[in-house]
Amino acid sequence: MFRLRRTRKKVRSALQNIDLQQALERASTHHLRQFKANEPRIKWSELKLKAQEIRQKNLEKLPQLIEQFCSEARRSGAQIYWAETASEARNIIEKIIHQKKAKLVVKAKSMVSEEIELNSYLQQKGIKIIETDLGEWIVQLAGDRPSHITAPALHLTKEKMAELLKNKFHQDIPSQPEAIVEFARQNIRQAFSQAEIGLSGANFAVAETGSLLIISNEGNARLATSLPPVHIALLTLEKFVQTLEEAMTLTKALIFASSGNRMTAYVSLITGPSRTTDIEKQTIIGAHGPREVHIIILDNGRSSALQDKTLKQALTCFKCGGCLLVCPVFQAVGGHIYGGPIYPGGIGAVLTSITRSPQEALLAADLCADCKKCEDFCPMGVLTGEILLELKNRLPTTPEEKILSKFFRYSSLPKSAVKLGFQAQRLLKKNILSWLPPLVWLAEKKLPPLP
User: Fold this and answer.
1) What is the maximum alpha-carbon separation in the chain?
2) Structural contact between residues 294 and 216, judged by C-beta atoms closer than 8 angstroms
3) pTM score, whole prediction
4) Given this model, what pLDDT does residue 326 score?
5) What's the pLDDT score for residue 397?
6) DSSP run (H or E) holding 53
7) Which of 16, 64, 316, 437 is least surrounded by Cβ atoms within 10 Å, i.e. has the fewest?
8) Burial of 350 (0-12, 13-18, 19+ CB in 10 A)
9) 275-302: per-residue pLDDT in tens?
């Protein structure tokens, strides 16, 4: 409660920001409309259960899956690295870039790269990196950070995007989405052929084939992982699945939960560097695609989370971001206010406690309304609200909370307040006071029965 004082001004500012409110309302409305339209056709309840079973089963045998994946990926010509921390992952990437004497890196969307704060690190080292996902590109131009897991620029209206592009490029860009997309296409496209390195994340890693599975709507991920001569893939250890069949089931669930669509435009499977057997059936590495594929597997607190009964279930999350668009707190203030430093929303607070520290997750945990809407929506059945409550219970009591606890324990005032509360509740149950503005919400809520 006391921690909320630090963010009260930010919350008030977000609530009064007309552009932000409009952007959040548009996004959640579009997502809900698309989701409801396709839900009967996708057999969502059945698909969710299958996806949950796959994730939970694979999480139990993660060490074996990682070992099998590494073996198969190496057999296909990929190079594998293990990074315990964000710092180690950054250093590995920087070393590869310097070895290749690369001056330009193009990047497909990757929240893991955000997690390790890769862009700012490389820029400090004098390495140019260009985001190629439309939302990430907009956010990069704005000097901002993503406010949503799958829609980085969700906090900006189309009008604000057009205004940003006008200020950056000194051109009048219409605020129609089609015009913004075309302008971005023309400005980003040449970078794919000029870059020496393409960097991506991965939605899933298939153990039986050593393949990376990457989902994309825009086509940028396919270009970033195909045109540059070197591909660096950054993924975390919960991304591993046993079979291609399992990966496709999870892909269907992820696509529908994140966008409300039955399928995305591109699903890429990358199994090592490009190769050809067109000359006497001899395998030659390096055809039209990358000559090298470097795969970095990042831990960053996840191994410890696997040993924690409460946090372990959060590792089944496949980052669809759908829970954010049904969350009333996120819909009110957005992901820059509600969430961790990198990952937004309630699930973002949980991921922050895993990848950074529980203390950094507390502010978002305090903002959680505990309405369970995220839990009802979650394709993986992650009990985000319950996890946040447990995280708060684990941390030591603040001095202010100790004083308040003693007050309620020894003062007679709380007892009088409880008696008064009983009387007020009787009036509320009879709807005598429900016309008052602060109590209008009672029309949609039911009070628990009186003892």
Assistant:
1) 92
2) no
3) 0.88
4) 95
5) 66
6) helix 44-60
7) 437
8) buried
9) 999 998 988 898 999 999 999 999 999 9
Bridge pairing between strands 292-298 and 79-83: parallel
347: nearest Cα among 328, 357, 333, 361: 361
Helices and strands: H and E segment counts in the chain? 21, 12
Residue 59 contacts residue 67 (beta carbons within 8 Å)? no
Give how far the C-alpha of residue 136 lies from the chain's centroid of Cα atoms, to the nearest Å: 13
Q: Which secondary-structure segment (H or E) carries 101?
A: none
Cβ-based neighbours of 164, under 8 Å, separated by 6 or more: 138, 141, 142, 156
pLDDT of residue 392: 86
Does the pLDDT at position 402 exceed 70? no
In single-letter form, the type of residue at position 82 comes to W
Token reading at 76 = 């296909």
Kindly report, residue by residue over 239-287, the tens digit of the pLDDT.
999 999 999 999 999 999 999 999 999 999 999 999 999 998 988 898 9
- Within 8 A by CB and 6+ apart from 362, the residues are 3, 349, 391, 392, 395
Identity of residue 279: I
Confidence grade of residue 218 (pLDDT, cut at 50, 70, 90): very high
**Which residue, chain included where needed, has tokens 């790269």?**
113
Contact 327, 337 (CB under 8 A): no
Cα dist. 100→88, 108, 237 in Å? 19, 19, 26
Q: Where do the domains of the chain lie, and which CATH numbers do they carry?
A: 1-410 (3.40.50.10420), 414-451 (no CATH)
For residue 80, give both structure tokens.
């594998």
Taking only Cα atoms into account, the Rg of the chain, rounded to an integer number of angstroms, comes to 24
For 312, the token pair is 């372990």
Higher per-residue confidence, 410 vs 234: 234
Cα angle at 156 between 150 and 160, to 5 degrees?
Answer: 145
DSSP track, 359-384: HHHHHHHHH-----HHHHH-TT---H
